[in-house]
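ok so I'm stuck.
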Amino acid sequence: MPYTLEPSYDDNPRLQDLVERLRAYLTGELLPYEQAHGITAESALDRPTLEHVWKRSAELGFYGISLPPELGGQGLSFTELCALKEELTASGAALSHSVLGDMGGPLRVGALMKYATEHQLDRYLMPVVRGELACCFSITEQDAGSDVRRMRTTATPDGDDTYVLDGHKVFSSAAPFADFAIVVARMAGAEEEYSAFLVDLDTPGCRVLEGEVPMSGQRMEGDLVFEGCRIPAANLLGEIGQGLRIGIGRITLNRLLHCPSLIGAARRAWDLSVAYSKSRVAFGQPLLALQSVQHKLADMATELYAARSMVMAAAARADGGENIAVEANMCKLFTSEACFRVADQAVQLHGKAGLTRGHEVERIFRTLRMFRIVTGTTEIHKNAIAKALV
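replied:
not stuck anymore, here's the structure
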């Protein structure tokens, strides 16, 4: 397929149709909705606003689209999902994270279905798929980020039917509007045994605190504090000791699936840079007439091509059932660094305008800078790659 900044998928008619319909929804409905309600990427979002997007996205067939048909989705391949995720952030829509169900929705729980009991599917996971409930995933702690085994949140058995959680989780995305959390905790009295639990956030002994606002300005994170929080044994997800497998297994795939979102944001920065270079006149000619500007745009496009090619190749291997642990780390490493370089060039091309707080290019720059750290730092990815290959 020839490279184009706005990709087409003529070799996959189903995907091309989905992409075209998604673009039509984003430009024809979602962006006007955000403008009419003054919603920006840094707005504090309420549940009714999010539910509006969930409902409309579900009506259009996008919410949970990657799930298998028996769970209400269309069984998208990872390659197809990557294509849609790129389109979402390339649109510049502030609520793009809620269209497919990335933030608190079906994409959070899809990989967990195989661990769930019938009770857990009926009570928790399927309502998320239907847009009736929202969830967050909580594994990180103040001193347990990349080194997740340093977590201190504990789960203590109390008889045969209850566990008691104590601890403090941080950086839980979607916590401000979630109904329940998937919490990974250390089993009390064990050094290397971790389990996962489904925790209703209105359970006595559980508090949701306002989280730190990241440099992107998005108000999407919260802290979860557990103080003698009693959880029914029926809410144990999987088996005792499977917590890290559930948590880290999800993280590995997420590292790949974050990449197309970064590519979309960088593509948006490229689009804005081209438009600005055409309209901005300096010394009697548009910026785009300057060879130095053309070279920057060429470098930016080349970075996008390399990142997209890499991600789609890894996604295709995942579709074939192959283990992509190394490739996922490589993709996240390269994509996060390359897309940040694109954003940095976009700021440079916009000059003082690109440094102005609230300018879209400035916001993209801040957002992409974060992803050299979140969901795995550049250094952690290099460690993982080297450990696997050497």
